[in-house]
Amino acid sequence: MVICADTLAITPQRHYPAFLLGIMSIVANWVQGTIMTGVSNAYANFTLPNVQFSSNVSSAISGFSYRGLVNFAGGALLQCVFITAILMYIIDRKFLKATIWSLLAGFFSFFGLINASSVGILVKKTDDGWRFTVAYAMLAVLFLILEVAQRKHWIKGQETEPDDLSSIEWAEWKREQALEESKIDENRQKIV
Predict the structure, then answer these.
(1) What phi-psi label fits residue 148: left (phi over 0), alpha (psi between -120 and 50 degrees) or beta?
(2) With left for phi above 0 and alpha for psi between -120 and 50, is residue 125 left, alpha or beta?
(3) Dist. CA 86–CA 93, nearest whole Å
(4) What does the pLDDT read at residue 37?
(5) For the segment 131-179, what is each residue's pLDDT rounded down to a tens digit?
(6) SS3 of 52, please?
(7) At residue 192, does pLDDT exceed 90?
């Protein structure tokens, strides 16, 4: 929690959603790890002596599909970096950088380093790695289209706020920007 609080203290406010959605894969990893142990510990008193409860519960839980949770938790730390970076560049409308991060995420998911429960070349019909690779590739294509639209001025340009300021420094920078804008507005009114 302290690390998260420190991170939020130096993160521009516009990146808070990227930060919060980025740590969700770590939360999913924690949830995945606690499902079996939590259920096993909760019902351990309801078993007969000398009966291994975990295997009994495992067979019951294995019938329940939580494949999405497993995929979201797979490679949680790396996935956290990818999701956060992609979302930050989307927020800042830096679509070319978002494209690069999406392609990297697709490469990593193809080999099961993120979004998968196993590592290897994931191309079998039962594997999900190739599905995530296709999804990340589709995102990359979308970001390239948005980059072209941005260069043609069909959509708003990239964010120009600095990224490496603390919250206090950012607030000061924002105040200076507001003062400059008010001076420009005053000059326009004098001309008119």
Answers:
(1) alpha
(2) alpha
(3) 10
(4) 67
(5) 889 999 999 999 999 999 999 999 888 877 666 566 677 678 778 888 8
(6) coil
(7) no
Query: Taking a C-beta distance cutoff of 8 angstroms, is the pair 57, 36 a contact?
Result: yes
Give the per-residue SS3 of 73-93.
HCCHHHHHHHHHHHHHHHHCC
> Distance between CA 101 and CA 40 in Å, rounded?
39
Give the pLDDT band of residue 130 (cuts 50, 70, 90).
confident
More confident residue, 103 or 54: 103
DSSP 129-179: HHHHHHHHHHHHHHHHHHHHHHHTTSS-----S-SS--HHHHHHHHHHHHH
Integer-rounded Cα radius of gyration of the chain: 23
Task: Name the one residue in this structure whose structure tokens are 């008193």.
Answer: 45
Extract the tokens encoding 166. 């603390």
Please give the Cα distance from 187 to 43 (Å, whole number): 74
Coil/strand/helix, residue 6: helix
Work out the end-to-end distance of the chain between its first and last CA atoms, rounded to an integer number of angstroms: 54
- How many whole angstroms from its chain centre is CA 153? 28
